[in-house]
Amino acid sequence: MVHRPVLDFAVNFGFSQLVDFNTRGDNLLDIILTDDSMLIAKVGALPPIGHSDHLVVEFTVSVNLQVNSTSNNPSADDVKYQWYRADFDSLSIYVDATDWMTAVYHDRNARNMWTFFMNTLNDGIKLFVQSYKLCDNFSN
């Protein structure tokens, strides 16, 4: 069966499937796999082309078209998280152990509170979500 290896691949490498409607009769045959669902702005169906009995899947990709000379070259800071291997229980305990009331009480500046929140969350992610650096996959 073909669907099992595809499902295993998607789950093991942290992909999400974005098509949530039937594309041929009562069957969902078309998929859009992504490891960053924020890149896909819209997924929809269009009528079949010609005599096909298959809907057309239309999707919009959100990309920044600004040219950046380093954007195609992964740096040492480019990290890919393996969310399917995350220890969410430990991450939850870590975040719950934070004294949020004291943080809010001592610093009422919204920007500083946001920075504290993001730093806490990012520290927890570094501790409990396996990752690898993108440049580790490339050789020069």
Model regions low in confidence, pLDDT < 50 over at least 5 residues: none
CA-based gyration radius: 21 Å
The biggest beta sheet is recorded as: 2 strands, antiparallel
- As a percent range, the share of helical residues equals 25-40%
Question: How is this structure best described in words?
Answer:
The chain is elongated, with a radius of gyration of 21 Å. The protein starts with a helix and ends in a 7-residue tail after the last strand. The protein is of the alpha+beta class and 140 residues long. The model has no long low-confidence stretch (mean pLDDT 81). The protein has helices spanning 3-12, 88-96, 100-106, 110-128, and strands at 16-17, 33-34, 40-46, 56-61, 79-81, 131-133. It has 4 helices and 6 strands, in the order αβββββαααβ. The strands form 3 sheets. A two-stranded antiparallel sheet has the order 1-2.
What would you say about this model in short?
This protein has about 140 residues and is an alpha+beta fold. About 30% of the residues lie in helices and about 15% in strands.
